[in-house]
Amino acid sequence: MKDKKLKILTLSLFCIVLFWLGLIYYFSTRGPVESMRQSQFAYRVIKKLDSIFDFSSTALFTKVERKLKQWWFGTENIPAEMVIRKSAHFGLYFVFAFLISLAFHTWKKSFLISSLLGFTVPSTYAIFDEYNQIFYARGSSLNDVIIDSTGAFFGSLFSTFVILSLLLIKKLKAMRRYEER
C-alpha cells in the first residue's frame, strides 16, 4: 500500500512538473505587447498590496530591492517594473527546480541526483526558453538565463532543506514512538 502511494505521489509530482514546464513555455511565447501587459498587471497588483500593507517603505525591502537591482542590472536606476519582471523569472525557475528536485527525490531517493537534476534541468530549459523567445519578436538575454539559473539553484537548495526537514521530523516521531513503548 505504501509503495502504491509513493508511486502515485511520484507520478503526480512529474505531472505537476510538466504543467509548470507548460506554464513557462506559455509565458515565453507571449509577444512583447502581451508580456508587457502581464508585467504591468503584476505591478499594479503589487502596488495595490503595498498600499494596504506598506511593505515598500521598510528598510528590509529597500535593501533587498537595491541589492537585486545591483546584481541583476548592475545599477540602481531601473524601474520597479523591471525588477518585477526579473523576479518572475527567478520565481518561475525556483518553483520549477523545487518541483523537479522533489519529483526525482521521491523516485530515486538520492539527494545528489535530485539536487543536480533540480538545478541542471531548469537551467538547461532556461537556455532553450530564451532562444525560443526570438521566434516571438522578443529578445533573448544571457542575463535572464543567469537569473533563471539562480532561481533554479535556490529552488533545488530549498527542496533539499524541505526533504531533510521532513526526514528529520519523521525520525523524531519514530524515536518518540519507540521511547513510549
Structure description:
By secondary structure, the protein is mainly alpha-helical. The protein has one domain. The chain contains 6 helices and no strands. The protein has helices at 2-28, 32-53, 59-73, 80-108, 111-133, 142-180. Helix 4 (80-108) crosses helix 5 (111-133), helix 4 (80-108) crosses helix 6 and helix 5 (111-133) runs antiparallel to helix 6 (142-180). It is globular. The two termini are 25 Å apart.
Main features:
181 residues; mainly alpha
Condensed summary:
This protein is mostly helical and 181 residues long. It has 6 helices and no strands.
How many H/I helices? 6
What general form does the structure show? globular
- Average pLDDT for all residues: 91
Number of DSSP-assigned strands: 0
Rg from alpha-carbon coordinates: 20 Å
Q: Please bin the fraction of helical residues.
A: over 70%
What fraction of residues sit in β-strands?
under 5%
Distance between the termini: 25 Å
Q: What would you call the structural class?
A: mainly alpha
Pick out the low-confidence regions. Answer: none
**Overall structural domain count:** 1
* Main sheet summary: none
Written as H for each helix and E for each strand, in order along the chain, the element string is: HHHHHH
